[in-house]
Structure formats: structure tokens, C-alpha cells
Amino acid sequence: MLCDACKKREAVVHIVKIENGRRTDLHLCAACAKKQTNFSNFRDLNIIDNDFFRKMAYPDYQGRSGDEPRCASCGMTYSEFNRLGKFGCPDCYEAFKEEIPPLLRRIHGHSKHVGKVPNRGTGVFRTATHVKRLHQHLQKLVQEERYEEAAKVRDEIRALQRQLPDGGKGE
């Protein structure tokens, strides 16, 4: 695919922007990506920050300078973690604590584990888990002062709790 800017060289950077349900694509070669400073049409742009993509766009890129985080226990750098895909020791989690949440959000869509209901779980377990999540949603709605929606969620919680053997009181 040719670069959208110069129409001469092969595109190596692909930028996708979704706004109001409309998708806009921008394909750039390494030279145009390097020159491109005005992303005004792509204001809320999140470009993946990964050495693999940097090396594609900038072939002479050698990696980060000495200012990148390093684990004090095993000496692993973030670049090494990025290349290997696994940490060197348990202390790496603390050493790279600033880099982990954005990475998880990029991979999973959020950085907080919300659990998973087993496929073979009993109906009671599924209902109890659903009630727990609805309670969290209810708290959020009340904080946001969305009381009409909160009342509907509250009613749904009460109806589900009546289905539980202990009335939903055994959490």
C-alpha cells in the first residue's frame, strides 16, 4: 500500500481513528510519518507505543536511552520485557508499575481484573455474580446522580436476589 501523503513509498505506519462511528484511516511511509507533526484531524489519537512499530517506522531506531526503567533485582529493562514478553523476576512488577497499566488497557481494554463466570457455573453462582456486578453499577449510577437508572438497577437486583436460596444475603 502506498503512503497517503507522498503517494511514492510503501506505507509502514497505519493510523485508525473512529469518531462518531466513522472510521478514518491514514497510511504513511517512514519518511512522512517522521515529518508528520500535525495530527489535527486525529486529535484523540492513541499511537501504539511499542518498539516493534518504532523500528518499522524508523529503521535506524536503536531503542530507548538509559533513562528507561530497569529492575533493581534482575537488571531487566522495559525494552527487554517488551522484546521477550515476560518479566525476569517478581520485582519487575514494581519496577515497571508505570508501564503496566497502559499495556493492560491496550491489550484487554481495561487494567482492572473484573473476573469471569465459569461456563459450567451453577445458575445460583451466575446470579450471585450478576447481582454483585449490578451493585457496582448501582453505586456508579448513584455517584453520577443518575437516579432513575439507579432505581431500575435496584429493582433488578431485588428481583434477582429473590431467586437466590439465601435471598442474596450470604455474600
From TrEMBL:
Query: Which InterPro entries does this one have?
Result: UVR_dom, UVR_dom_sf, YacH
Q: List, for all copies, the residue spans of the domain called UVR.
A: 128-163
Which Pfam families does the UniProt entry name for this protein? UVR (PF02151)
Q: What is this protein called?
A: UvrB/UvrC motif-containing protein
> What organism does the record attribute this protein to?
Megasphaera intestinihominis
